[in-house]
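The data layer described in this paper is built around a simple, fixed record for each protein. Such a record has a labelled line for the sequence and another for the backbone structure tokens. For reference, a complete record is included directly beneath this paragraph.
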Amino acid sequence: MKILTIFSMVFISISLLSAQPSIKLIVFPELTTADFASFATLEDLQGAPRIFCAEINAPNQTVVMKGIIEWKKIGSPDYVLIAWFITRPFLSRTLCNDDIGKVDVRIYDHYANTNLIEENIRYGKPTGEYRLTVELYDSTSQNLLSSDSRNLVFLNPSQTLTIINPRANQTYDAGNILVEWTPISGASEYYIKASERNDPNQSLEEALQRGTPLVNDRNVGIITSINLRDILERELRPGSEVVLQVSANVPGPAGGKKIFSEIVNFSILNPESQYYQQLVARFNNVMNRIGQNEFGQMFQSGQIDPTKIQIRKEDGTIMTFEELINFLEMNANNIIRITKE
């Protein structure tokens, strides 16, 4: 009987612990478009952009929430208090900052350091580091039930998405086009769009929007490089001109935003063209010149497709077939050997 009583007490204790009220703070990672000044003054949280949400787990309980905003300016070792607010008692639920001020969630009291707020406003955008803390109290505002804190992460509004490969006005083999771009902080996915440019009088933008689609806003996830052939919706035509753009989706307030790269245009190599035949002839000549007869025979027999050779330069771009030939011709006397692995 005593053992049963002990087990019952342990079970009750565990049940009580699992029912402990909690609060979890969710801060949107992309805040450069938010009106930080209107948020920081705490006079109209409901009218400010959605910046944070608080998940409150306290079923059927009346609670009070306190929010605290601190700032650490660039070069300062410590956070300073910008503002705080505390609500009137309300029935617990998940709420976001733009919910505060509605009928069931009213601000009871608040404080704002006007000097620090004005200093932030003068910067024109959030700068330095910000810390947002939420505290959950019982209906008396005396007993702290739970708290959570997050650092606000602000994206650099000047960051740009740059296409590394392919490069503008270059010629590439249809099966060997690496699309590669610089990463964007906070991006949830990247999209690729590509079209043929059939009219040289069209702008690149017109060609991308009105040309024959090759890749129609394909979501490639969070990778930052992919072979164009893997996502093509139809085959590339030898000798055609292609326009391509990469965009990044960054989640945040008001649906987040999209960051677009510049549009690049490049051509598809035509194996039947006189230009291609001249390149192959030059390549074979330079191979023979540096004593790589075996390679020359492999190229002539079709065992190796020279257009599929990739050499990455120091700046991260990949040499085109013509650039590779130019490099080999200029440095033929300095090349000791070339091996195939």
